[in-house]
Design goal:
The structure holds two protein chains of two kinds. By secondary structure, chain A is α/β, with parallel strands linked by helices. Chain A folds into two domains: 111 residues, P-loop containing nucleotide triphosphate hydrolases (Rossmann fold), CATH 3.40.50; 72 residues. In chain A, 37% of the residues lie in helices and 24% in strands. Chain A is built from eight helices and nine strands. In chain A, the strands form two sheets. A six-stranded mixed β-sheet of chain A has the order 5-6-7-3-8-9, sandwiched between helices. Chain A has a three-stranded antiparallel β-sheet with strand order 2-1-4, covered by helices on one side. Chain B has a single domain, classed as MetI-like fold. Chain B is mainly α. The longest helix of chain B has 38 residues. Classes of the chains: A alpha/beta, B mainly alpha. The interface between A and B is medium-sized, with 20 and 15 residues.
Chain lengths: 225, 222
Amino acid sequence: MILPLRLEAVSFLDVIKPLSLELGAGPSTIILGANGAGKSVLMRLMHGLLRPTAGRISWSSNGRQAMVFQRPVMLRRSALDNVMYALRVAGVAAAERPAMDALKEVGLADLAHRPARVLSGGEQQRLALARAWALHPEVLFLDEPTASLDPSAAREIENIIRAFDAAGTKIVMATHNLGQARRLADEVIYLHQGRVLERTPVAEFFSKPATAEAAAFIKGELPWA
Amino acid sequence: MKDIFLDLRLWEIVVLSLQVSLSAVVLATALGLPLGAAVAVGRFPGRHALIVLLNALMGLPPVVVGLVVYLLLSRAGPLGELGLLFTPAAMVLAQTVLITPIIAALTRQAIEDAWREYEEQLRSLGAGRMSAALTLVWDTRFSLLTAVLAGLGRASAEVGAVMIVGGNIDGVTRVMTTTIALETSKGDLPLALGLGVVLIAIVLVINAAAMVIKEAAQRRYG
């Protein structure tokens, strides 16, 4: 197990103020916050794409983790080849079978041989999830994965995220969509101006937020959620 | 004017021109493509200066390249012992020097743009810089084709460098551009015009092919 993930007094420029956090296996963690609260930066610090300005980030051991971004980046090759590329980089030699299985899991088996970049936005995001699925990550980071998708495509993405959860992958997702947080979260980390203001079970967060900022965020956001 | 295209001399000159320029393009691609890719994704001291230098060298005057290569290859020069001066090999060398910066600079630009788009995703998947660079070269292959053809266009059209290091020797180092220059000054306009037509046709075909390939690839791969 690579979890728990420990952040000790981690800061990044003045986007993330020194914070300590421990993420264990199990519950799906949703990072909520307004635009500019530091959600994306926090996820990139955890995933290792950014190095903290100060503090320490440590996993309990080495293991697979994956990240899905708001805008998927696909290579100029077929959908299947995109998944196989990820497997090969991860050192899997016989990549075709697991890649095909991953495409089936997200419902893209029929489009396996289509060039990835001509797929629709929703299909590309599902392909990004298939790429992650093939790796069997212990932790999956998702940075606003449905922010640029229409509601039905977003629902499909949410179903796949549930399948990851059911398969035992720890979900860590950033969003500013409260409806999505309610549907997918077990616990909520509320981020405000680079600080963790709350970390509570999802029901408690929405029924009785402990801070005025979180209460205002819930009130302000709900009409559009 | 029509008979000029039946002249065997003309076609010998065309063939030699293509041999020289294509050889130079192959060498310049072998050097310039990895160099451009390395500068695009690498992080090392002097990187910025190297980019400025590459961009500046894109505009190298062919006569200056010819002069420098001439000095290198002349009997008293450091490479004089090879005896390459006034041979096609010398012309290939001069054109390689001329177009390597063009291919390197255009490659650097294409790969750096792609790197900006792909970096987070490739690092997230765990690809190292070397393997990421190879992935980017493959993914931008159609843009890189344009870079290579820009080099070919420049090589086949220049006259200054091949004139100096080749010497424009009849039947040995006489290529299309040097022949046009010579025949025009001698007043033999039909041969000069005939070669001019062939030269323009070659450049047109190359550029049309590049455009067709790139657009087809754009539609196919997005």
